[in-house]
Every structure is written in structure tokens, then in C-alpha cells.
# Entry
Amino acid sequence: MQVVVRDNNVDQALRALKKKMQREGIFREMKLRRSFEKPSERKAREKAEAVRRYRKLMRKRMEREGF
# Structure
């Protein structure tokens, strides 16, 4: 990942880097890898995430269609 520093403005470049990392999910990945996650826990977490995504999609779809 690369960020350009313009006019020696390191703070702005750091904010841009953090935003890119957030978008890519790097912070979330680092948090997950801090400790070992059993395969059964991983499956349960991924399934719960999928359910959450699906429910959010349905909520947005219903809102858009006016139900």
C-alpha cells in the first residue's frame, strides 16, 4: 500500500493511509490474528457475519421498495 506525502504534510498522508487500511480491512484482520481462533469458532463467526450481511441487504432492499 502506498501513500504520497505532499508538501511535507505527514499528518494528511497518515490519515489517508489509515483510511485506505480501514477500507481494505487490515485493522480487522490484525485484530482477528492477535490470538488463535479455533476452526469451529471461525465457522460460527463467518456464518454470523453472513447472516448479518444478508439481513442488512434485506433491510435496505425493503426500505428502497417501500415496505
